[in-house]
Design goal:
The structure holds two protein chains of two kinds.
Chain A: H1 9-15, E1 16-27, H2 66-78, E2 82-83, E3 86-87, E4 90-93, E5 103-106, E6 113-121, E7 127-139, E8 143-147, E9 159-163, E10 170-176, H3 186-204, E11 216-226, E12 236-241, H4 244-263, E13 271-276, E14 281-287, E15 297-298, E16 305-306, H5 309-316, H6 323-334, H7 338-346, H8 350-358, H9 363-381, H10 392-403, H11 409-420, H12 426-433, H13 441-454, H14 456-463, H15 470-480, H16 487-498
Parallel strand pairs in A: 12-13
Antiparallel strand pairs in A: 1-10, 1-11, 2-6, 3-16, 4-5, 4-15, 6-7, 7-10, 8-9, 11-12, 13-14
Chain B: H1 3-7, H2 11-20, H3 25-39, E1 49-52, H4 54-69, E2 82-85, H5 112-119, E3 124-128, H6 162-169, E4 175-179, H7 186-192, E5 195-198, E6 219-223, H8 226-236, H9 254-260, E7 267-271, H10 281-296, E8 300-304, H11 312-327, H12 349-360, H13 363-375, H14 382-405, E9 408-412, H15 428-432, H16 439-444, E10 448-455, E11 462-468, H17 474-492, H18 513-524
The chains are: A alpha+beta, B alpha/beta.
């Protein structure tokens, strides 16, 4: 699809300094829409969650959703923004059939949140501060589906369908200031920034934060300039990049493409770009000038929003621990290495381990189970580990059974299988499957005598002081007892039988 | 009492007769339906109604009669019929806004004021004519033909609410709802010899009034007496959670104020800038007489100056079209109303929207959309919309200063009496000047009332007197208005409308619904 030439990322980085900027749209998960009482629900029958207001029928008026305002303030506070004591809505006017009124009710001159920042931690621990220009409230448009034609785009389509269920869903648009100095970390920073925003809004509980559903949508601005030059290059805006990996790839691609264009002595066209996941490339959208005339004017149907200090402070008191601080605290509490902790975070198991530790397991045991046996089984079942069906309580109980000597690690894995097969709690599985460790010394002694007799040369070595050879005998005993023996006790008995100090 | 006498009663009198059992609501509604059938249609008909809601009105009337017969406690105006300006959406009846672009459109929801009429069980006679999207001062800009002034069928009934004013003046309805953005209730009231009130901005919910200019629009009552308007505003007023700009503490005691009838000791201010030059002699004379009458009743008449009112019209014609250009963007043929495909060329969405709007909107609507789009454009916003908003602030300050000196302000409602149909149709600026005295109230959000001040000697046509009060002080308008009304009626020997020429009634065909009326009336008994 794309015929653009690109240069390698390394080559681009040698010559050019990238400047980034992001507009992230967050759909709020309020019960009703931004300006109407229609339900805000994803995935229902098209045009079922609508009323006269979000359809923009003649005569209707908007009313601001207070909950959406609160969610917006929470996002602003989490992004270290200032909260405007007084702000207004404005009409952004353009004709398009996904916008029923042919204007979007948004904020223009006075956003509710402004002047914030967020520290983004990259994988190697480098912390990068991203400045937030503003976070403002607006309403989502309906969803157009272009039918016919090869591309699924409006060009070449036979007709288009529009679903207004999304029309009027509350949005917060978070706009960064230009991000300078990221250098070759730019694609990584892009991904990490969007991931951080997603984590924040999810953690706040104000959005379902599912990128695949469009709850969090990123427009990524990229421009290049020669190193040392202060003035920004011409930017492009890649629209609606809807996965973290795509954000990283799109920024990388645009850097490579810009570099090739600039290398050839041509100016970058200021325009929107569309990201294509299949070709991992962007194509030209529409020209975008800074002077696009949306004929903004203050929304006369809405009165200004006044945020009192008491209200803002009450909301601030509801803020959960910031995700970055929480990660730092948990890593310190659990004593994991950076590598161990990063693996846990990447596996999405931080919450599960925290709950397991809270339920009584040691941090090491929790990590061992979640990152080990549970993750392995989840991979086989092709589900997220957290969704496999193992609860923190199961892990705690298995650990307790091991600690009490009732089962060993090998048996514990069978217990886990039993739990996943729906055979009950770990204790019930032990009972039903007869998995308890053999602790009858008499039965063990017979097995030991048998194993020693089977491997007389090994027995001789042990007698001669090569105590480490005892493993082979232990293995024989475990084999005979089908693993249901306490390996430690077996070792003791073997050494006692041979009259050797352990 | 004959039907002829019955329809000439005031709404308050009708309500009293209904309460006493002297008449039934079905009789009352049928008398008005008959009057509509007799005077509204045909080549020389008043053409106040775009839709007559016969069945529903009679059904509501029958229901009221049944409830009354059963001893149910009803609203004071229950059973008293009303007409609704066709800018206000109604379930079960088409809403056109006087535009082809909405021809046949049925709203799936009721405006808040309509819900309130239904809650009070007032039968809705139908929808009244207006300038397209309420843009005009003569009702000639309706896509469905002009309404004629019952005083002279060759003259305009004012606008945009010429249909509501003419319906009330022609005794086709005792009450009507209007909307007033720059004078659309008051100027038609003035030229048809009726009463009309633009309440304080926010006193009546705008939910369901198709917006022209959101910051200026206000729904209000149209009637033949001051008390009737007060009674109607009490029905439709009050806070509405569906309208963010609606007041949480709207004024009350309006009918009581109208019944109080006392202006002794009140200070009434003549607005220096709103009379004299540019005002017809007969208008000026009736205005001066009104001042004398009020002075005679013990009011203290003083002159105040509102120096920025001179800029009001210019600022209005920037703010109103700006908001209108935005409010009318939704009429694009995509979701409702007319859709026109371009005659030739590709069928893109832009071209379908363009063809629909080109065919669906009339010239005055297009003129204002173009004006407003221009005024809001990048690079012009500050000079036009921004400056106009500053003027608006100055007008508000003028009012604030004036109301520090006086309790109410007074002026002629319109500079002239009703002009001939077609006379100003090709001169938009002359047309716009009709609203010079009414626009300041909209710009400041203050309430205004017009009442008949007598007839101009040069043409025998009614003159309107306007009263203005501070925001939320609508009651003052009713108090002073009712006094002035009674003084003027005493001077003229009765209501001014009594002097209107009789309209030729065409023979009323037996109405099909009569059977229905009798059965429902019987059921009611």
């Amino acid at each position: 699809m794309s015929t653009d030439t690109i240069v390698s990322f390394e080559e681009a980085m040698e010559k050019y300094d990238p400047v980034l900027g992001f507009e992230v749209h967050v759909e709020l998960n309020t019960k009703t829409k931004m300006f109407s009482s229609a339900p805000n629900v994803f995935g229902d029958q098209p045009n079922s969650n609508v009323n006269e207001v979000c359809l923009g029928l003649p005569g209707v008026l908007p009313v601001v959703n207070r909950k959406a305002v609160e969610s917006s303030i929470l996002i602003g506070l989490a992004l270290n923004c200032k909260i405007a004591p007084h702000c207004t809505f404005a009409r952004k006017q353009y004709f398009y059939p996904d916008t029923p009124k042919n204007f979007q009710t948004s904020q223009y001159e006075d956003p509710i949140c402004y002047d914030g920042w967020i520290d983004i931690e990259l994988a190697d621990g480098t912390v990068f501060r991203v400045e937030i220009e503003r976070a403002h409230m607006e309403e989502d448009a309906g969803k157009l589906t272009h039918m016919g034609g090869a591309t699924g785009r409006i060009q070449g389509a036979d007709f288009s369908l529009v679903d207004y269920n999304r029309s009027g869903v509350p949005l917060v648009e978070i706009v960064t200031k230009p991000i300078e100095g990221a250098g070759s970390r730019a694609p990584e920073l892009a991904k990490a920034y969007v991931a951080a925003i997603r984590e924040i809004v999810k953690n706040l509980g104000v959005s379902d934060a599912r990128m695949e559903r469009g709850n969090v949508r990123c427009d990524a601005n990229v421009s290049l300039r020669p190193y040392g030059r202060e003035k920004f290059g011409t930017r492009t805006e890649t629209k609606n990049v809807n996965s973290l990996r795509a954000v990283e790839n799109a920024v990388r691609f645009e850097i490579q493409r810009h570099a090739a264009v600039l290398d050839s002595g041509v100016a970058i066209t200021q325009e929107t770009r569309h990201w294509h996941e299949d070709t991992k490339s962007t194509t030209s959208g529409r020209p975008k000038s800074d002077a696009d005339d949306y004929r903004y004017f203050p929304e006369p149907d809405l009165v200004p929003i006044v945020t009192t200090a008491e209200w803002v402070e009450e909301l601030r008191s509801r803020l959960p621990e910031p995700p970055a601080e929480r990660r730092k605290r948990l890593q310190a509490d659990w004593g994991y290495t950076d590598l161990e902790f990063r693996d846990v975070v990447n596996a999405g198991l931080m919450d599960e381990i925290e709950e397991t530790v809270a339920a009584g397991a040691t941090a090491a045991a929790a990590r061992k189970w979640w990152m080990g046996e549970i993750a392995r089984r989840a991979k086989l079942a092709d589900v997220d580990p957290a969704a496999l069906g193992v609860t923190p309580a199961v892990v705690v109980e298995i650990e307790r059974l091991i600690a009490s000597g009732a089962i060993n690690d090998k048996l514990a894995r069978k217990v886990l299988d039993g739990v996943l097969d729906g055979e009950g709690t770990p204790a019930e599985v032990v009972e039903k499957r007869g998995l308890a460790v053999v602790s009858d010394d008499g039965a063990l002694q017979a097995a030991i005598d048998e194993a020693l007799a089977a491997q007389p040369d090994v027995a001789e070595k042990i007698r001669g002081g090569k105590v480490q050879a005892v493993g082979a005998i232990v293995g024989g005993v475990m084999k005979v007892t089908r693993g249901q023996a306490d390996a430690g006790r077996v070792r003791e008995l073997i050494l006692a039988t041979l009259g050797v100090e352990g | 009492m004959t039907a002829h006498e019955l329809i000439r009663s005031s709404a308050a009198e009708m309500a009293a007769k209904l309460a006493s059992g002297e008449i039934t609501s079905v009789e009352l509604v049928q008398a008005h339906l008959d009057r509509i059938a007799a005077v509204d249609g045909g080549e020389r008909g008043v053409n106040a109604f775009l839709h007559v809601n016969t069945e529903e009105a009679l059904a509501v009337a029958a229901d009221v009669d049944a409830r009354r017969a059963a001893g149910e406690q009803l609203h004071e105006l229950a059973g008293v019929p009303i007409a609704v300006k066709d800018l206000i959406v109604t379930k079960g009846q088409p809403t056109t806004a006087g535009s082809k672009i909405l021809e046949g459109w049925m709203s799936p929801y009721d405006a808040t004021v309509v819900k309130k009429l239904r809650a009070a069980r007032m039968p809705i006679l139908g929808k009244t004519n207006l300038d397209e999207f309420a843009m005009g001062s003569s009702t000639e800009h309706s896509a469905y033909g002009p309404t004629r002034n019952p005083w002279d069928l060759d003259r305009i009934p004012g606008g945009s609410g010429g249909g509501s004013a003419a319906a009330v003046a022609a005794f086709e309805a005792p009450l009507a709802l209007g909307t007033d953005t720059g004078g659309s209730i008051r100027q038609p009231g003035a030229v048809t010899g009726t009463v009309g009130v633009k309440p304080t901005y926010g006193a009546v919910s705008r939910y369901g009034a198709i917006a022209m200019a959101s910051s200026l629009d206000q729904i209000g009552p149209v009637s033949r007496t001051v008390l009737d308007s007060a009674l109607l505003q009490e029905v439709i007023g009050g806070h509405d959670p569906f309208d963010s700009t609606s007041l949480t503490d709207p004024s009350t005691g309006l009918a009581d104020a109208a019944r109080l009838g006392n202006v002794a000791g009140m200070k009434i201010g003549i607005i220096k800038e709103l009379h004299g030059e540019g005002y017809q002699a007969g208008v000026e004379n009736r205005f001066n007489e009104s001042l004398e009458l009020l002075r005679g009743a013990g009011a203290d008449i003083v002159e105040v100056s509102c120096p920025n009112f001179g800029y009001a019209l210019g600022a209005y014609y920037l703010i109103m079209p700006s908001e209108a250009s935005s409010n009318l963007a939704k009429f694009d043929g995509v979701r409702f109303g007319m859709r026109r495909l371009p005659a030739e060329g590709p069928l893109t969405i832009e071209r379908v929207m363009g063809a629909t709007r080109a065919a669906g909107f009339g010239d005055e609507v297009k003129r204002r959309i173009i004006l407003g789009t221009y005024a809001l454009s990048a690079g012009y916003y500050d000079a036009y919309y921004g400056s106009a908003q500053k003027v608006r602030t100055l007008i508000q300050r003028d009012f604030a200063a004036a109301f520090e000196q006086v309790d109410v302000l007074i002026s002629p409602t319109a500079p002239t009496t009703a002009f001939k149909l077609g006379e100003k149709l090709n001169d938009p600026l002359a047309m716009y000047l009709n609203d010079v005295a009414t626009i300041p109230a909209n710009m400041a959000g203050v309430p205004g009332l017009t009442l008949p001040g007598g007839l101009a000697e040069e043409d025998g046509l009614p003159v309107g007197i306007q009263l203005l009060a501070p925001a939320r002080e609508d009651a003052r308008l009713y108090r002073v208005g009712a006094v002035l009304e009674s003084l003027i009626e005493a001077q003229w020997g009765g209501p001014i409308l009594d002097r209107a020429p009789s309209l030729v009634e065409t023979v009323v065909e037996p109405v099909e619904t009569l059977d229905y009326v009798e059965t429902t009336a019987k059921e009611a008994n």
